[in-house]
Fold this sequence. Notes:
- GO terms for molecular function: phosphatase activity.
- Pfam families: Hydrolase (PF00702).
- This is HAD-like protein.
- The chain is of the alpha/beta class.
- The protein folds into two domains: about 10-20 and about 95-245, Rossmann fold (3-Layer(aba) Sandwich), CATH 3.40.50; about 20-90, DNA polymerase, domain 1 (Orthogonal Bundle).
- Helices cover about 35% and strands about 5% of the residues.
- It has helices spanning about 20-30, 45-50, 55-65, 75-85, 95-105, 120-125, 130-135, 145, 155-165, 180-185, 195-205; strands spanning about 10, 110-115, 140, 190-195, 215, 235.
- A six-stranded parallel sheet has the order 3-2-1-4-5-6, sandwiched between helices.
- β4 (about 190-195), α11 (about 195-205) and β5 (about 215) form a beta-alpha-beta unit.
- The longest helix has 13 residues, at about 75-85.
- It is globular, with a radius of gyration of 18 Å.
Amino acid sequence: MARPARVEYVIFDMDGLLIDTESVYTKVTSKHEILAPYGAKMTWDIKAGLMGRLERDAAAYLLSFFPDIPLTIDTYLSQRTVLQDTHWPTVQPLPGVRKLISHLHAHNIPIAVATSSQRRNVLLKTAHLQDIFGLFDGRIACADDVRGKTIGKPDPYIFSYAASQKLGRGVGEGEGDSVTEEERREREKGLVFEDAIPGVQAGKRAGMSSESIWVPDVNLLNVEYSGTHTPDQTLKSIEEFKPEEWGLPPYPENGQLYAPASAK
């Protein structure tokens, strides 16, 4: 069904949506030297609760399920960082990502990233993928940018921050009655892509479009969530996204990809 032509800018989550980092998180935490030696395993129900949280909060949440494991938050994070750093330079984009980002960039649709990852990790994860992330032209809001101002998704602050500070949109910072009518209209021009329900909830609380797009790992489909903010469209992958349904330029009929920025 065609939607009103209202989308003027797009904000993306990063981990598990644009790049395949969630498999690294699972591998490092459950299958390597952190939980496995204790006979423990991170289930998808636990993992779903980690998604969108800031680093220390996520670590505390994870360890709360394993009170008998003698790991402090700092020890866990130190071990995890060493292991993950070896994998980040090899992560790959997920299906349809290169096509969509190149398409939006070619049509001058403002795009940004809003991620709970620290900037050092963003750089490690994206340095080898500049044909994609170079198209954002530095418009990546990360945990460092919003430290002390948010507890992580589903808090909506990072999305309003990305819209206002990275894209220059007049969306304000609050939610609910603190948002003016003009700010609300500006927020409705934005569209958020997320792979996690807390991120979907954050985007909808921020007022980015009256509908939201959820692109989950198949393992998340059976996880129960609470809250009133639910996705209006669920895709198996970004490959299924039809830009014209959101008032965005359609893909070329010949299916040809746009040349990356480095090749122009």
